[in-house]
Write a structure and sequence with these properties.
two-stranded parallel ribbon; rod-shaped; DNA polymerase, domain 1; 8 helices
Length: 182
């Protein structure tokens, strides 16, 4: 079949190169696991830059592993358009990895007037950026809170945030330790 030894060597080298290409391409075909991805892996997703990647990692570290696109929708800066772009490229299996202190996820991802990420926020007086410092509250939810507060009056308790469209009991539960109406 092969007339010379060099032809066999070329065929074997080509086969080995093809095998290496397949092995390197396989993880990319599997999708990015948002529960264990690094910042650079998240940035490989369409529409995810450094700021959104850091927000995903910070949310994951604070709230635990993602189970669906609905969980990703709670991350500040991730909206319907971004979800549509990344949906075919992400997976949710596996266990969340913890990120050591001092890495990207431990740095602030928002330029808010509240520099303390554990500060208590008065939802009746907070600015949009202060509201965005709460876990699961992004720009659109912060605006919705302010609009609801303006149209319907002050909140008598933090649990009343559930009257705001897009804020459910899980979000209320996640922010309860940092929320006040006093």
């Amino acid at each position: 079949m092969f007339s010379t030894h060099s032809s066999l060597n070329r065929f074997l080298r080509l086969g080995l190169q093809l095998l290496m290409l397949l092995l390197l391409a396989f993880p990319a075909m599997a999708g990015v696991n948002v529960n264990s991805a690094t910042q650079s892996e998240l940035e490989s997703l369409p529409g995810i830059g450094p700021s959104k990647a850091l927000s995903i990692i910070e949310y994951r570290d604070t709230n635990g592993p993602f189970t669906s696109l609905a969980d990703l929708d709670r991350v500040s800066g991730i909206g319907p358009s971004t979800l549509a772009n990344i949906e075919p490229h992400v997976v949710f299996d596996g266990v969340s990895t913890s990120v050591p202190s001092g890495t990207a996820s431990s740095r602030s991802t928002e330029s808010s007037s509240s520099s303390d990420p554990s500060a208590v926020v008065n939802i009746n007086t907070a600015s949009q950026s202060d509201l965005q410092s709460l876990p699961g509250i992004g720009p659109s939810k912060a605006v919705a809170i302010i609009d609801n507060r303006t149209e319907n009056g002050l909140f008598s308790s933090c649990s009343e945030l559930s009257r705001v469209t897009g804020i459910g009991s899980a979000t209320v539960r996640n922010i309860s330790a940092r929320c006040t109406v006093d």
